[in-house]
Amino acid sequence: MNRTFAGVVAFVCSALLLYTGTGFAANIGTVYPFVGQISDLVYDDLRDQVYLANFAENRVEVFSVGGRQVVGRVPTGQQPSSLAISPDRQALYVANFASFTLTVIYLNTLEVMGEFPLGVRPDAIAVGNDGLVVILGSVGLMRFDPATRQITRLAISPPPVPPAGLPTT
Question: Which residues have a Cβ under 8 Å from the Cβ of 54 and sit 6 or more positions away?
Answer without folding.
Answer: 34, 36, 37, 38, 39, 60, 61, 80
